[in-house]
């Protein structure tokens, strides 16, 4: 590489692609290809270009570079929260897979209301992303119309329906609830306390569980509904509220592992042995669930696979490939451990 330095007059302005070409000793066309489609350029050439980019301080203008191809190389990903560990693996998998395919992820927090999701997605569409990942399948009519007009690929995640907007990677929350209900019936657990968040997907799991239980009679259920996000502290507080009812519970069913962990701590504080005196069930199989004492019985969903498949569907569609299976049901498994 030429050991050329940018002059004082040149440094006073923003470095250009031509500056990178001069410093790298390559043509502007080669530099452009290395920045926009690195997978099609020799690795040593890409490394040479990136060294020149660092030396000059050049910032690639991906929007300007994409005008001719109508590609921004950005994929917008909307999740309800970023302080919810349930979504962390999915987000990371999307980012990793998109990066490997030459795209960048634009992450935004859409909240849990139709209004907030519609507003944030409309804002990010002004950035002209090549595709969008949305969490869930329930969206406002305004957002659906906006996405239709944008005419870009969309993948919905973390839910299941036969009629997605475009493509879908998820699982059935109703079936998860049904499986939990069947598990309770099999174990003979009928004095049920529930600690549940108020989001739509948790409500679907709850309804699936209640439908299964009511097929076998009317179980006794007491419930504490809490706001998002679910925390260990809220799990403890909610368990305390249930215990204050002075009823005997044989199981606490929680809408997340985090709440289940808090419930276990509060049960032990009250002198209850888990699972001998009280069973506890969570959801998500988060990183700590298997190592908790006692280990938490929960429902496992492959959060990483959701992100990987969502990103792959988008990248494949943008590459012009035929998508034979636009709906991917990744399923789930109920993991029985010490707590139940």
TrEMBL record:
Record-annotated HTH lacI-type domain positions: 15-69
PROSITE patterns: HTH_LACI_2 (PS50932)
GO molecular function: DNA-binding transcription factor activity; transcription cis-regulatory region binding
Superkingdom of the organism of origin: Bacteria
Entry annotated with the keyword Mitochondrion: no
Listed SUPFAM superfamilies: lambda repressor-like DNA-binding domains, Periplasmic binding protein-like I
Entry keywords, A to Z: DNA-binding, Transcription, Transcription regulation
Keyword Transit peptide: no
InterPro entries noted in UniProt: HTH_LacI, LacI/GalR-like_sensor, Lambda_DNA-bd_dom_sf, Peripla_BP_I
Pfam family, one: Peripla_BP_3
Protein name: Transcriptional regulator, LacI family
Originating species: Musicola paradisiaca (strain Ech703)
């Amino acid at each position: 590489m030429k050991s050329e330095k940018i002059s004082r007059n040149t440094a006073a302005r923003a470095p250009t692609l031509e500056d990178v070409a001069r410093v790298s000793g390559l043509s502007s066309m080669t530099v452009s290809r290395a920045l926009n489609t690195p997978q099609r350029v020799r690795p040593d050439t890409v490394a040479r270009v990136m060294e020149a980019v660092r030396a000059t301080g050049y910032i690639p203008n991906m929007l300007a570079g994409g005008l001719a191809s109508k590609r921004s190389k950005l994929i917008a990903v909307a999740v309800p929260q970023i302080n919810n560990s349930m979504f962390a693996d999915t987000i990371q998998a999307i980012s990793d897979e998109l990066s490997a395919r030459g795209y960048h992820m634009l992450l935004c927090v859409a909240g849990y209301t139709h209004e907030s999701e519609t507003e944030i997605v409309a804002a990010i569409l002004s950035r002209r992303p090549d595709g969008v990942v949305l969490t869930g399948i329930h969206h406002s009519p305004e957002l659906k119309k906006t996405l239709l007009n944008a005419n870009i690929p969309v993948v919905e995640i973390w839910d299941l329906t036969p009629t997605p907007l475009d493509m879908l990677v998820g699982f059935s929350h109703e079936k998860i609830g049904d499986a939990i209900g069947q598990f309770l019936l099999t174990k003979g657990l009928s004095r049920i306390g529930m600690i549940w968040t108020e989001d739509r997907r948790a409500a679907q799991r709850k309804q699936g569980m209640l439908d299964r239980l009511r097929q076998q009679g009317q179980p006794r259920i007491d419930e504490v509904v809490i706001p998002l996000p679910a925390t260990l502290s809220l799990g403890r507080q909610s368990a305390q509220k249930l215990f204050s009812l002075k009823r005997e519970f044989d199981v606490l069913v929680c809408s997340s592992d985090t709440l289940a962990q808090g419930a276990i701590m509060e049960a032990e504080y009250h002198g209850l042995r888990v699972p001998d005196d009280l069973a506890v069930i969570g959801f998500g199989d988060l990183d700590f669930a298997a190592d908790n004492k006692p280990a938490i019985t929960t429902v496992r969903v492959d959060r990483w696979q959701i992100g990987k498949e969502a990103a792959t569907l988008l990248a494949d569609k943008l590459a012009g490939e035929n998508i034979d299976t636009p709906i991917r049901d990744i399923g789930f498994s109920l993991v029985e451990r010490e707590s139940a």
